Amino acid sequence: MLVLPITKTWLDMIISRKKKEEYREIKQYYDVRFQKYFYNNKIRINKNLVDKEVIFRNGYNKTSPQVKCLVHLDKGKGKQEWGARPNEEYYILKILKILEVKNINGIKRNKS
Q1: Local structure of 94: helix, strand or coil
Q2: pTM, to two decimals
């Protein structure tokens, strides 16, 4: 399972379904992680890849607030209101479905 750190503001917006995408810079660190997880080391991004589960966690501890989502990885320009800088290209993790929310005020709940 791929676990990505995220700020509390963005985490809360994802949980409330106000934010539908999460962005990561296009750089070697994410090239390697995403190729391995999403593409089985295939170089090309294409639209026919299988969607994957990703955990967005606010902190590095297993007890930190987190949300598990089904996501589709793409590349493109993001929305400023969701944290993207103008005219910059990103890896875009499109949130298709919220699967589980954990450690939010001690609550664990499954979502849909």
Answers
A1: strand
A2: 0.85
Measured between alpha carbons, how far is 55 from 35 in angstroms, rounded to an integer? 17
Give the model's confidence band at 14: pLDDT under 50 very low, under 70 low, under 90 confident, else very high.
Answer: very high
Rounded Cα distance between 52 and 69, Å, is 8
| Distance of alpha carbon 41 from alpha carbon 61, whole angstroms | 28
For residue 79, the 8-state DSSP code is -
What is the distance between the alpha carbons of residues 40 and 70, in angstroms, rounded to a whole number?
A: 18
Domain assignment of residue 85, given as a range? 2-110
For residues 85 and 78, what is the distance between their CA atoms, to the nearest angstrom? 7
Domain count, the chain: 1
The confidence band for 5, taking pLDDT boundaries of 50, 70 and 90, is very high
